[in-house]
Amino acid sequence: MASRLAHYDLAHTAGVQLPEGGGAGKKFAQHPSPSAVEELMSAKGAAELWAELKVKLGESYSGSCFKGATVNPILNSYKERFAQKGLAVFYLATNTEVGFGGDGMDTTSAGIGYSWLEILDMKVAPEYVPSVPARKGGCTIS
What is the largest CA-CA distance in the chain? Predict the structure, then answer.
């Protein structure tokens, strides 16, 4: 499955989409992050910490997606260590309805979930708070 939010880079954040499906946790832990994330981690002296976090998150993967119930406690356990590097890491998720059909055809829609980590440079935007709610529970936002 192609990554739909593989990388975005705002003036004060970098991010990486969390993969879904079979073996996604292992893929996340083993594959390089987008260059903006890797560069930010390197610049802040947090590359090893980021690699450690990716392994822990990869180990927590179960079912068909990363779940807030497992991701958020892991992120909380790393919060202070990332803060010492001037970084904050947020887990975000959204569901999108995608419609199919049209032009006289029966229309069908399906919900697609996306989840990602957003990494913030606290020196640049210390008051920033993500605008997308964290996913609660399973693979859909509740």
Answer: 58
Q: Collect all residues with Cβ–Cβ distance below 8 Å to 127 and sequence separation of at least 6.
A: none
CA distance 9 to 5: 11
Could you give the CA distance from residue 44 to residue 93 in angstroms, rounded to a whole number?
Answer: 26
Rounded to 10°, the helix 35-43/47-60 angle is 130
- Whole-structure pTM over 0.85, yes or no? no
Most confident region among 32-41, 55-64, 97-106 by mean pLDDT: 32-41
Which residues have a Cβ under 8 Å from the Cβ of 12 and sit 6 or more positions away?
120, 121, 124, 125, 128
Q: How far apart are CA 119 and CA 83, in angstroms?
A: 11
Separation between Cα atoms, residue 92 and residue 105, nearest integer Å: 35
pLDDT reading at 49 higher than 60 = yes
Task: List strands edge to edge, sheet with 8-9.
Answer: 8-9, 13-17, 108-121, 87-100
